[in-house]
Amino acid sequence: MTDFFNGEDHIVLALDEVSVNVSCGLHPWERHPERPTRLIISVRLYAPLSTARAEQMKIIDYDKVRNRILALEKDGHIDLLETVADKVVDACFGDKRVAACRISVRKPDIYNETRGAGIDLFRTRARWAPLA
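That's the Dihydroneopterin aldolase sequence above. Prediction below.
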């Protein structure tokens, strides 16, 4: 991440712990549509502060990101949490001012002794390619 920020200040928008039930996972018991897996998804959107100020602090609408997360319930089965995260990344970069994003996807009900198991994904617009 050292070259991403380039010494520039950024504003970070947060969308925390959106709960959604998704058919997701590689294990046989995770492939039953009648028993979707609960996912907790958090998002951070990074935008250069100079861009935000130039546009008079127009808001970056994270409603579109939230709506995409909620729509995951209708996407059919998804094998990998990484694919879930990439679908959210596509929504994040729908706003041209977003330079980078971090997506956290957790399965909170996997292990009794943990708050959750999952992945964090950090993407920059410069290295991003939309899902096909």
